[in-house]
Structure formats: structure tokens, C-alpha cells
Amino acid sequence: MLGVCYYPEHWHESRWQRDAARMREIGITHVRIGEFAWSRIEPARDSFDFGWLDRAMEVLAGAGLKIILGTPTATPPKWLVDECPDILPVDVEGRVRGFGSRRHYTFSSERWWKESARIVEALARRYGCHPGVVGWQTDNEFGCHGTTLSWGPEDLGAFRDWLRRRYQSTDQLNAAWNSVFWSMEVGSFDEVTLPNLTVTDANPSARMDFWRFASEQVAAYNAAQAEIIRRHSPGRWVTHNFMGFFADFDHFAAADSMDIAAWDSYPTGFLEVFPFSEAERTRWAETSHPDVAPFNHDLYRAVGRGRFCVMEQQAGPVNWAPWNAVPKPGMVRLWTLEALAHGAELVSYFRWRQATTAQEQMHSGLNLPGLDELSPGGKEVAAVAPEIAALGELPPVEPARVAIVMDYPSHWAAAIQPLAADFRPMELTFRWYEALRRRGLDVDFIRPGNALDAYDLVVVPTLSEVDAAMEASLSAFGGVALIGPRTGCRDRAFAIPDNLPPGPLADLTGNRIIQVATLRPGLGHPVTGDVTGAAVRWREHAETTATVLGRFADGGPALTRKGGVFHLLCWPDGDLLEAAIGQAVTAARLPVLALPEHVRIRRRGPLTFAFNYGDEPWPLPEAGDLILGDPLVAPRSVAIWRSRPR
């Protein structure tokens, strides 16, 4: 259940045996290796050196550790880049992104696909049936450092081929992109250019297609690696380590070829890079916000079709955020148990020992820099491991009664045509999740178009394009739905729907949006009625035949209800969001438990977990059979209890 990321190539071989033994001593059962080791595995073309890796795996497996082997494609070696410079990515300004760090490849290079297949095949043939190998990780953090999109000749050629398959003729392409606007029509696919380096805005339809193309490239690349691995390594699972709050490609599609999803959990780092207020960043600097890790746990459980793990768990300060706090005592233990509460099958820490050199030397590990001495985070892992062992096998994670629809193309649409500089779909989705969790509700995420009948309440914070599957699932849904702004505002060709937004959901909501206002910071449109608060950032002016629950000062609807469908026609401030969520939760007849801002709970079968991120103790809300912790949950601690039958 607990793992660690280990880099035997970084340490003298004489240390491996002791490292493996100490991992087992503190309760580590799994170890991930190899994901950045291409230059050591193949120091020159077709000159493989597997000896060191053979010995490392023998040591690790001999200590009883289960091995997750990474494919090393995130770090093409220098000799390969020199041979094949066309594999390098190009930034939006047309500059080659060169060798010297990592992720220096474009998904569009045919030569790169062949080289990737070659190294993955070599590894899978050699280690596919190794008795110590239980799983594989493809590559590392797809899209990290802005590498989903690339803008070079290889990308242009691949994009043109993608368009040929999609549109068949330039007449259809020109119609879909409305290329007659500004005389952008093309006479052949070879005339298509990449949607960058234009004088002013590039065609938004072309940009959306380019993003779709890039996302599909990521999914296809991952599937190609997974196919090779499965051919040579039967019975082992395949995963990839996604990132938190990252939407540059469709993670649902990328995970279709995986057995389990994984993500890399760095709660304090994400606090600094996500658009929290300065007050929130200060408030949660040394613990992270209570919903940062859970949001991603629940999302990746959905991406993995019910299965996920944490491949890299923060165990101390990170090195890549603008400010990098030391987590308060107890947080590494709390984050570990929290991941398990949300269904994680493995929590793997980054890394075994803090490096003394190179780019990540300021990133903590379970051991102090270069030493065989546990760090503060490592000591917490050693303490939590026996607690987890005592819990035994945990019950399955049951479906929640609330689901959030997560749509990755909506994030691309807002980036392509923001209209408001601060309209960020991930932030909006997070705030709706936070409001639900503050009521003590468990939350699932769901892929657009999936059946909704398992839920009492489904919320759609924003959904730019409502396709036929999504329209059908919402229309067939017998529960309560809450739909947010910017939903149904574009069709597949990135055009405004003929019947105006929300397009296919017009009859379901009773609304017709005739214009949109974006509201600069400091400007709000107050809302009164059954709900109160204000619109900020974004407001939709609508005609409605639905019941109006909240109105703007000019009489326009802010929140409407038609049957079981609520429609919030703005980006709500905190008060309006709380009121709108409250209306939907009440209509769905969901039991709520009002929680203080620093406490969250999560249920796993008959077990309830409580997590206290704050500085004040919190009394448990109900009597139960306490399994871990105390009835008064201490600051930065955890309690687990089994509910008694009523």
C-alpha cells in the first residue's frame, strides 16, 4: 500500500542493499524505478547496458519489494537528440526547446514514436516477466512544462494529416472553420498553417481543432506504449502519473489504455500555483487547502474508472513553487490516510533520498540529502505504515450521491476565447467541489455523456460543448442537476449554437442567453430573491420560461429552475455559490453536515474518515466505533470510525 520513487542510478551500488532493507523496515512495499534512466540503459545507439538495472532489480525484489518499472521516454538522451533533432518540441513563438532538462520531444514526430517503441520494446522484452515487476508506468507527467502543444514542422505535418482524416475535403474544412471570415480559406490541406504567430487572433475553430489533435496524440502515444508492454508483460498493470489541476489534454481519453490512473500529489506546491487568493495561500501555506488533494483524488479515481493511486506523494517541502513551505508536523501522515480514504490503492512517496545535486536538490525525500537518515516526512511515513497495516483491507469505495461533470475541452475553449481574463474552468470546478465538500458530501467526478442514474445530484460547473451523448444523459436523468455558466455556448465547430446558448439544453433549462458580460475585478452584479449574493467575472443575460429563484437588479434571471434542473447564469461569488448549491442539495434531499473550513470527511463503505487541517481540535459529529484517532480530532490529525446501525 506504500511505495517510494527510487533512483538506483543516482547512488553508489554499495548503498542499494541497505536502501532496500530500510525501505522494508519503515513499511514500504512498492518501489518505482527507471523512468529517467535512458542514458544509463542505452548509453549509445543499440549499446544496451542492462547489467546495473538487472542488479538493482535483483536487490529490490530480493528485499521483498514490488517493482513498478517506468519507461524512460520523458528523457531522450543526448546522442538521440543529436541523431534526430526533429524530435524536439517547438514553443508557440517558433523556438526549438532543446536538450538539457526533460520532456524534450514532440508527440508529432514519427521518428520519435519509432524510437519510443524501440526502447519500450527492449525494456518490456527483458523485464516483462520479471517476478519482481507488478506494474509499469508509461513515460512521466505527460504535458508537464507546457509540452502538450508543440509548434514545429513535425506538428504541422501531423496536424495536416489529422485534418485530412477528419474533414476529407477542404470544402468541409473551410465550412467548419468558417474560413471565409478574413479570407482564411485554403485550397488544399497543404496550405493549412499552425494557429500561431499570426498578427492577431488565429481562427478559434482552427485552434480548437489543433488542441483536439494534440490531445489525441497524447492518448495515442500512451496507448502505443501500453500495447507493447502488455504484449511482453502479461498480468502486470499499466498506469501513467498525471498531474494535479492539469487540463491540457483529455485525461479520460489518455487513460482508456490504462488499467489504473495515477497522479502526483504535491499539496503545498499546488496551493502556490493554483489561483487561490493571497489570504488563502497564507492561511493554508503549511498544510495546503483541505480540498486540493481530495479534488484530484476524486478526479483521478474517475479517470481510472474507479481505480487510482498516488505515484508521487509530497513528503516535505517541494522545490518548484514560488514559495516552498515545510509542511506542518502530521501533514504527511494526514495526506497518506486521506488518499486511502478516497480509494487510492497505493501511496508512493517522492523520493527515497533527497538529491545533493542537479535540478531537484532542494526537493525533499524520505531521507535527508545524501544520508541514510530519515527526514521528518520519512519519520511520519514510518509511523503511519503500521497504522495502515492495522486497518487491514479497507472496504470498497462506493459511488457518491453527488457527481461533477468534468470536461477537458471546456478548459481549452476558455483558453482560446477567454472573453474574461479570469474565467478559469478548473478554478470554477474546484469552488463548486469545495462548496459540496463543506457540506460533508462525498463527490464523484464523471466523464461527459456517461450515465447519471447512480446519482441524486449532478453538477455541471461549465461545459462549453454539449454533445448528443451529454444531452441524452441529462435529459434521461431523473435526479437534480445544477448547470453553470458558459454551458452549451459552442458547437463542435466552435460556433455559437443556432438557437443560442445553452444550445441543446435550451428546452431542459428554459433559458435563452442573448448576450454575455464579463465583469472586471471589483465589479459585481448583486442578486436578490430566494438566493442572494452577486455575479462576478461573468454574467449571462437571458430570457427564460423557467422559475426565477434569483434576479439581478435589472430584472434578469441569475438562478432558474425548471423541474429538477437549476441553471446558474453567472460566475457566483461565495455567497451566491453557497446559496445555489444549497438549493440544489435541498432539492436532491441530501443529508448534509456543515463543516468548519479546516475539516473534511470522506466515507469508504461503513468507515468515515475525518481530517483536521486546522489549529483547533474538532469533535466528532456522531457516535461510532472508533478505529483510529480520538473523539476530539487533534490539529493536523485523522480519525476513523465505523458508523453504528441506526
Cα shape: globular
**CATH H-level name of one domain... which superfamily?**
Class I glutamine amidotransferase (GATase) domain
Reported for the largest beta sheet, the result is: 11 strands, mixed
Fraction of residues in β-strands: 15-25%
Structural class: alpha/beta
The average pLDDT score comes to 97
Ranges where pLDDT stays below 50 over 5 or more residues in a row are none
Task: Classify the fold: give the CATH topology of one domain.
Answer: Rossmann fold
CATH class of one domain: Alpha Beta
| First-residue to last-residue Cα separation | 32 Å
Which percent range fits the helix content? 25-40%
Summarize the structure.
This protein has 646 residues and is an alpha/beta fold.
Characterize the structure shown.
The protein is an alpha/beta fold and about 650 residues long. Among the domains are: about 260-395; about 400-590, Rossmann fold (3-Layer(aba) Sandwich), CATH 3.40.50; about 600-640, Golgi alpha-mannosidase II (Immunoglobulin-like, Sandwich), CATH 2.60.40. The strands form 4 sheets. Strands 10, 11, 12, 13, 14, 15, 16, 17, 18, 19 and 20 form an 11-stranded mixed β-sheet that branches. Strands 5-4-3-2-1-9-8-7-6 form a 9-stranded parallel β-sheet.
